[in-house]
Amino acid sequence: VGTMMPGETPPPAGTAAAAGACANCGVLQQNINEYVAALIALKQKMIDGDRLLTEYQQKCTDILYLEISALRCQVEQMLQKILPLEKCQEELGSLKAELEEKKVCL
Questions:
Q1: What pLDDT does 30 receive?
Q2: Under the phi-then-psi rule, with left for phi > 0, alpha for psi from -120 to 50, and beta for the rest, what region is 11?
Q3: 1 near 11, Cβ under 8 Å?
Q4: pTM value?
Q5: pLDDT tens-digit readout, 16-56
Q6: CA-CA distance, 27 to 21, in Å (whole number)?
Q7: Domain ranges of the chain
Q8: How much is the CA Rg of the chain, to the nearest whole Å?
Q9: Which is the most buried residue in 2, 18, 29, 59, by most CB within 10 A?
């Protein structure tokens, strides 16, 4: 449609060109609505993904903490068992030395 002159009336809205344009606008509006809905869904998935990742990292941290605590406890128990054995070994070494001295004397 060219520029209208003063006093010229616009074409009636029911013309084929106007109907085609309105149909195209409707399709465009529908496409935009679907695109926006897809973007919103994607954003929600990203938010959910971030939340799940945070929860997973927290669980990993908790599990590691529990495992480290358990290992620390096992190490402490082993040390408690080893210390008396080391003392016994020292005493055995002293007794062995004494026996060697007595053996030499005999």
A1: 94
A2: beta
A3: yes
A4: 0.48
A5: 666 667 888 989 999 999 999 999 999 999 999 999 999 99
A6: 10
A7: 26-105
A8: 44
A9: 18
